[in-house]
Known about the structure:
- By secondary structure, the protein is α/β, with parallel strands linked by helices.
- The protein has 3 domains: 2-299, 2-enoyl-CoA Hydratase, Chain A, domain 1 (Alpha-Beta Complex); 329-508, Rossmann fold, CATH 3.40.50; 514-714, N-(1-d-carboxylethyl)-l-norvaline Dehydrogenase, domain 2.
- 51% of the residues lie in helices and 12% in strands.
- The chain contains 30 helices and 20 strands.
- Helix 5 (155-163) crosses helix 6 and helix 12 (265-277) packs antiparallel against helix 13.
- The longest helix is centred in the last third of the chain and has 21 residues, at 631-651.
- The protein is globular.
- The termini are far apart.
Amino acid sequence: xxxxxxxxxxxxxxxxxxxxxxxxxxxxxxxxxxxxxxxxxxxxxxxxxxxxxxxxxxxxxxxxxxxxxxxxxxxxxxxxxxxxxxxxxxxxxxxxxxxxxxxxxxxxxxxxxxxxxxxxxxxxxxxxxxxxxxxxxxxxxxxxxxxxxxxxxxxxxxxxxxxxxxxxxxxxxxxxxxxxxxxxxxxxxxxxxxxxxxxxxxxxxxxxxxxxxxxxxxxxxxxxxxxxxxxxxxxxxxxxxxxxxxxxxxxxxxxxxxxxxxxxxxxxxxxxxxxxxxxxxxxxxxxxxxxxxxxxxxxxxxxxxxxxxxxxxxxxxxxxxxxxxxxxxxxxxxxxxxxxxxxxxxxxxxxxxxxxxxxxxxxxxxxxxxxxxxxxxxxxxxxxxxxxxxxxxxxxxxxxxxxxxxxxxxxxxxxxxxxxxxxxxxxxxxxxxxxxxxxxxxxxxxxxxxxxxxxxxxxxxxxxxxxxxxxxxxxxxxxxxxxxxxxxxxxxxxxxxxxxxxxxxxxxxxxxxxxxxxxxxxxxxxxxxxxxxxxxxxxxxxxxxxxxxxxxxxxxxxxxxxxxxxxxxxxxxxxxxxxxxxxxxxxxxxxxxxxxxxxxxxxxxxxxxxxxxxxxxxxxxxxxxxxxxxxxxxxxxxxxxxxxxxxxxxxxxxxxxxxxxxxxxxxxxxxxxxxxxxxxxxxxxxxxxxxxxxxxxxxxxxxxxxxxxxxxxxxxx
Length: 717
């Protein structure tokens, strides 16, 4: 018996196991929407009524994806139209069909290979068992809080019952990703199977996979057993007990507030749903507690902003054309902080990497940094020790350029000195193959400056990664007028394969992100020079939500400490071409950089006493009159210049669309995602005329750097 529905392919195996292959039509990933859930509901009904079916195994026929969850395009469309009835009907359908699966006397087993996210994980949770592939692409997450909502297909009800309350609250409120070893250890899955996915994703081929065979065997065992659900361990039962539950939930609330303050309601509402639902049956809690909270959050502006930003990121990835000959071997020039991080990321994704530096000690330190990062993943049970060895073996450290010469794409990450970068490019052109691509990771020089003496500038492109490379999802792909389409496509494809968002920007000083960020950082330094307390400046920015999404809200002076004042001064100096609007306090910075080590603004979470002394000395020699200033004025001085610079970038076609600015600053510097992005926030906060008037008022009081750009008051941005 076999069937070919629109989104599910099915066949009945010997022994009565009903194999269902999820293969959503028209998308590269499986999603749950009204179409696919209705079809799955019919299959569940068929299983219930068929005497021939004894058990069910659910597998994906998509490569690297079990199920991506709910269809976010459908959700965002409903949010834009303010029409939520279809979504409510979808949620009700999911609850009913998942409940029927859980109560079925015929066991359901999920064979998970690839990403199992959101509603996809909730589908797997409704099964009686979950077998996970150990493949590198397999992972589990309930990332709904990152979209301003909570798990809405029963996840707040089923997950605590499966893995215990503390672990479930951590997963639900953080949205963090769990990998197969971690999933097995915490009881999220029943087995981890070393299984290579079939290249041809058909039911006939996936039946041969070890993962599916193990899932079929597990289904058979469950058929002959009266116990369908694994009991919680004693410690899990204790921490989930009614008397302890309020303490555990209270601790979770405090952790959420510490991480994201009150900016995001979804994690706190999710805790409420879990706490209330634990005393109810799953279906009752899903329908009476989880569903109303989900619909309330979904209708709010924060979720609409977050879903919109997510879909823009997916759009960026979709626009990257498939490469006829994707590279598998790369060179990285420079083994410093950025170069070693880039090399480590490449090795994680399966690339062979030649890491070259002229200094053996820097090379050794860089390899040590890579090894340390991989050891941390082993300790966290993300990867096996064997994975660590394979990743390190993919990297070949060398001091010889000839070892890099055969790589079809080389990433330059040497020190930020123009003459050094030009010399490295000249060496590359003398040794590399005639069609090799040179990608620079510069953060302060234009691509045109670096390639001004290049023989083949068309092979040059920018790949601007952000620090820390592993966590920052944005990569600015810089295109100069001379950059070839092939070089651009290879750079975008590489960024996408690394799991980054490749945003193509036009070549120019500071590109997009650093150019806008410079106005924010420079103004913070000016404020310090006026005697405004360090703590107050950062508090204003953190109160706005800067970097809240990282779990560590951060003000501009904390960010300068993280970046390093030497790097920041270099970037600000290189952007002096922007004119009078980019003032800074070089004399003050020189004081901070005059010693053997730069002085930081903060030390051990306190204002650095040494920094306070330097500021006092500076103010004695460079007296600046600074009268009382309100937090509202500090807020305007920090953020309105960023809006002005963003509009200038649009006028100069650094990027084409306002949403690209919003997206870049959200994922590049931690502009608060719940505000929808810099320009979205500006449009919602004031009119273009009001913004212009506010900048003009600041200019009259604080100087020409606040003068608004021509056309700002006309809107259109």
